[in-house]
Amino acid sequence: MKKQIAFMQKQQRRRSWGIILGCIAIVVKMVFGSHPDWVEKGYSRGFYVGIRWLFSFCFSGVSFPLIYVFFIALVFFAFRKWFQLRYLPNRSWGKRLRRSLWSGLNFLGYLAFFFLFLWGYNYNRISIEKQLGIRPKPLTGKELETAFLAQTEQLLDARFSLRGDDTTAFEQADFPGDLEARLHTQLKTWLQQQGFPTPGRVRGRLLYPRGIFLRFSTAGLYFPFTGEGHCDAGLHPLQWPTVLSHEMSHGYGFADEGTCNFLAYLCCAESKDPIIRYAGCLNHWRTLAFQYRRYKPEAFQALRDSLPHGIIADLIVINAAMDRYPDLIPHLQYRVYDAYLKSQGISEGMLNYDRVTLLVEAWKRKKKG
Q1: What angle do CA 66, 67, 70 make, to 5 degrees?
Q2: Which residue from 284, 301, 285, 294 is spatially nearest to 242, judged by alpha carbons?
Q3: Is the pTM of this model over 0.85?
Q4: Domain ranges of the chain
Q5: What's the alpha-carbon Rg for the chain, to the nearest Å?
Q6: d(Cα 203, Cα 244) in Å, to the nearest integer?
Q7: Cβ neighbours of residue 294 under 8 Å, at least 6 residues apart?
Q8: Which of 41, 99, 134, 232 could form a disulfide with 362 if both were Cys (CB 3.0 to 4.6 A apart)?
Q9: CA separation, residue 280 to residues 28, 151, 154 (Å)
C-alpha cells in the first residue's frame, strides 16, 4: 500500500513539472524585462550562442523542415494521451476531465519553458538601434516622400540592370538554386561586421502545402523548437529572399519584427546578386508605397502608373500569388499576434513591423555621416 501511494505521489509530481518550469521561466522573463543588459550579455551573446551551435550541429544537415516531425510527434502523443485518459480503469468522467485539464496545463507549462529557454528571452535584449548607434525617428510627410522617391529610383536602376526594357515578370527559374545559402552568407557576413555573434547555420525552409501561412495572414515563421525559419512556398519567388532573410534573422537571436525586417532589407539590398538585390528593393518599395499612398494617394497613383511595364508585371504577379490564399479567419491573426507581441514587451504590437522604415532611414543617415 505504501509503495502504491509513493508511486502515485511520484506520478503527480511528474505531471506538475511543466507547470513549475513554466512559472519559473515566466518569472525570469519578468526580471529580464528590466535588465536588457543582462539578457544581451548572459543570454543573447552567451547561453543562446550555445543553443544555436547545438541546433546547427544536430539539424543543419537535414534536408526537410523539422517542423513536420514536431507536429507529427505532437499529434501522436496527443492521441496517446487521449487514449490513456479514455480508458483509465475505475475513474469517473469527472476525475478524467480534471486529469485532462491538469495534463493540458502541464503541457502548456513545458511549452512556455522551452519557448523562452530556446529563444524567447531575446525579446528583452538591447535594441539594435542602440547597438548600432543609430537614432530612428518618425518621418515627416516630406521625409517619407523623399525616401519613397529615392527608393523608386533605386528600384528602377535595379530592374534595368537585370532586364533592361523587358516587360515580363520574374519567375522562380530566375533565382539561384542555392538561394538560401546565399542569403545566409550575406546575413551572417553583415552581422559579423557589426560585431554580432553568428553561431552555426540557421536554416531557411520553404514550407508546404502552399498557403499554409498565407491563409492566416502570415508569410513566414521562425520555430524555436527546431531552430529553423520558414517561408510559405505559396508566396511569389520575388518575396522569398526577404521572408527567408527575416526568419533567419530571428534564428540569430533577434526577436523584434521591425529589426528582422531591417536585417532582411540590408541582407537583400546590399547583396552582390542582382536578382536578390532587386527583390529586396522591390519589397522595401512596397513597404514605403503603402505608407506614401496614405499620405498622397493621387501622387502615388500617378507614379505607380508611370512605372516600367516590367515592374508593374512583378507587382501584379506578387499580388496574384497572395490573392490565391485568402484568409480563412479574417483579422484573427492580426489580433492574436498583436496581443502576443504586446505580451512579449513590444508595446506597439503589429505596428512593430513598420519600424523597418525608421531603421532603414536612420541607417542611411549614419552611413552618410
Answers
A1: 95
A2: 284
A3: yes
A4: 2-124, 129-368
A5: 24
A6: 9
A7: none
A8: 134
A9: 38, 11, 11
